[in-house]
Structure formats: C-alpha cells, structure tokens
Write a structure and sequence with these properties.
The structure is a single chain. The protein is α/β, with parallel strands linked by helices. It folds into two domains: 232 residues, Aspartate Aminotransferase, domain 2; 124 residues, Aspartate Aminotransferase, domain 1 (Alpha-Beta Complex). Helix content is 41%, strand content 13%. It contains eleven helices and 14 strands. The strands form five sheets. A four-stranded mixed beta sheet has the order 1-9-8-5. Strands 3-2-4 form a three-stranded parallel beta sheet, covered by helices on one side. Helix 2 runs parallel beside helix 8 and helix 3 runs parallel beside helix 4.
C-alpha cells in the first residue's frame, strides 16, 4: 500500500465544483487585488476565530514580518521566541535586524517552555513570540503574564494552529497580533501562498492595514514604509470555500489522532503527542517520538508511507544564526526533539486501511530497530 504524507488531490476532488465556481466569480469580476472576496474572507475568518479584526496577507511569513513592523521592532531589539519552529519565525525577527532570544521547549508539547520566559527578559526585550506548534497552543497564561509585567506585546505564531484552543480561547486571539499561514499543506490551505494577521486592537489593525499596501494611508500618500503584503482575491475565494469545510476536516484529523493514540500508547518505543490540559489540538502534524528515528524513517519510506521530520536542526544551531553565539547543548530539549521526532500522515481523507497500515508498519519498524 502507498500512503502519501499529504493527499491534497483527495481533498480537492471533494470540493472541485465549489472551487471552480468561486474562481469563475473572481474572473468574471476581474477584481484580483483585494476587493470584495478578500473583504468577505476577512469577515468570515474573523468570526471563525472570534476576533474583531482579521487582515488577509500574502503569506504566513509576511504576517509575522508585518506584525513586528507594526509593533515598531527596531535593529538591536530583543524578541523572545523558540528555536524549534519553521524558519520563518526567526527569519522575520532577523530581517528587521532585531535579535532572537531563544527559550527551550517543553519536551511534551514541543512549544516554548513558558516557565523559562521571565528569566530571559532584559531591558532590550521588545516582544515575545511564542509558536503554537503542530496545531497545539503554547501555554499562554504565564507568557501573557510575563509580557504584562514588562509592558511587552505578544505575537502569536499560529501558522500551524488555526482552530486550536487554549482554555476556551482561540489561537491568534490572545496576543497583540496572531499570525496564520495558508500554505497548501496547512489545515486551511490555499492554492499557493497566503496568510492572515489578527488583532483585538483597532489602532493596530489600521496600522497593519496601511503597512500592507506599502504604508499608504491614501493613494500615493505614504506616512509609513510598508510592503506589498496583500492577499490575492483568487486565494481568498479558494479559502472561503475551504473555510466552510474546515470544522469537518479538523474533526476528522482529531479522530485520526485518537486512532493513532490508541494504537501507540502501549507500543514499546513510541511516544504519541501529548495534549496539555485545557487545549484543543488540531493536528497540523501528528508527531511521535521514536528511538533510532532515522532508521525508522527509512523503513517507513521503504514501505511507501509518507512521513517527515519537523525539525531536524533547531535554529540556535543554524549557520545563519551563528552570530548569536549558541552551540550544541544550549537548548537540550529542542536538540533531543530534533533527533527523535517523526510526523505521520494525519489528513482527513485517510482510510481505515491506510491508518492500520501506517500503525502496523511503525510498530514493526520501531521493534526491528530496537
């Protein structure tokens, strides 16, 4: 049996006619830049997330950059974040010549260890940027408390966590800005790049809205230096269709995760993902820990099971961040996770036969590599 890591064709087949109609509507209107499709999507996604303001942008990476720019992060400022994430989180900080300050992860959830945040706050700290990794929110209460004590904004990197909940609050609704990605592999994925910035602050929303169009408050009237951070109308049309199906897709991912949990909890050598109390995880990835990870990965690939490693190198050890002065052993939990974690197929369209095949093969592979 062959099981892809992600099967977007299966998802598309179920909504092909809806997508075609939505795209036809855009082409008939010939309004490709912002316009009614983007405005309608922003209204619908804001309602889904329970936030007053949502701004469609060009990518999740640009959402992070836009948030940092709107909060006036300057060269030399420190931004507290995690080394165990996709590169865009750290790259956005570095692009503004600010300094990433790393906090190691909680080994159970892979998110920033919130209990360590206060210890790294300095007079140069200007923001805290936790990541809601793999579809699970970071432990936000202590992070928000640490931020409030020093008057710091919190930017939520929720690129992998649309629909995830923390104690009844939605990912992207708790900080100054929430940043989402609509890269095709995400739970809510577009037909290319796209992203979203959310906020509860009307003033911050207006500033990000201006920065999104090169800092122009009115045409050719530039009070700020922004960028071209607009979400395409075609992407908004696709996302509006997919948003209607997102709750059922999320439910299916959670059911698939429960199936895996049941199979792996008693399996020697396999550690399923842990969901913290009060969290609703949406499983952008289903990540297990296994010994001899690379050998297990080879066996799964040989069995035609798609899988992936998130992430093989924590960013405190990345070559481009050598100037920060970190070395092996500085972030031990992130380094250990990088050696042991393995993501399995989790998408909604998995069949019962495919899930059985994945589970059986992983259990046998871990046993064979022990």
């Amino acid at each position: 049996m062959k099981v892809p890591f992600l099967d977007l064709r299966a998802q598309y087949a179920a909504i092909r006619d809806e997508i075609a109609a939505a795209l036809d509507e855009v082409f008939e209107s010939q309004q490709f830049i912002l316009g009614p499709q983007v405005a309608a999507f922003e209204k619908e996604i804001a309602a889904y997330l329970g936030v007053p303001y949502a701004l469609g942008v060009s990518s999740g990476s640009d959402a992070l950059l836009l948030a940092l720019m709107a909060l006036d992060i300057q060269p030399g400022d420190e931004v507290i974040t995690t080394p165990y994430t996709f590169f865009a989180t750290i790259g956005a900080i570095a692009r503004l010549r600010a300094r990433p300050v790393f906090v190691d992860i909680d080994p159970a959830t892979y998110n920033m260890n919130a209990s360590h945040v206060k210890a790294v706050v300095t007079d140069k700290t200007r923001a805290i940027l936790p990541v809601h990794l793999f579809g699970q929110c970071a432990d936000m209460d202590p992070i928000l408390e640490a931020a409030q004590e020093r008057g710091l904004p919190v930017i939520e990197d929720a690129a992998q966590a649309i629909g995830a909940m923390y104690k009844g609050r939605s990912a992207g609704s708790m900080g100054a800005v929430g940043c989402f990605s609509f890269f095709p592999s995400k739970n809510l994925g577009g037909a290319g790049d796209g992203g979203l910035a959310t906020t509860n602050d009307a003033g911050l929303y207006e500033k990000m809205k201006t920065l999104r169009v090169h800092g122009a408050g009115a045409r050719y009237d530039h009070d700020l230096v922004g960028g071209n951070f607009r979400l395409d109308a075609l992407q908004a049309a696709v996302l509006r269709v997919k948003l209607k199906h997102l709750p059922e897709w999320q439910d299916a991912r959670i059911r698939n995760a429960r199936f895996y949990d049941d199979r792996f909890t008693e399996a020697p050598g396999i550690q399923p993902p842990a969901v913290a109390p009060g969290n609703v995880m949406t499983y952008n990835q289903y990540v297990v820990r296994v010994p001899q990870r690379d050998r297990v990965l080879e066996r799964l690939q040989a069995a035609d099971i798609g899988c992936a490693v998130y992430y093989p190198v924590p960013h405190h050890l990345a070559g481009c961040f050598r100037y920060l002065g970190h070395g092996p052993g500085d972030m031990p939990e992130s380094e250990q996770a990088a050696k042991e974690t393995l993501a399995l197929p989790i998408y909604a369209e998995l069949t019962a036969e495919q899930k059985d095949y994945i589970a059986d093969t992983l259990i046998a592979s871990v046993a064979a590599c022990a």
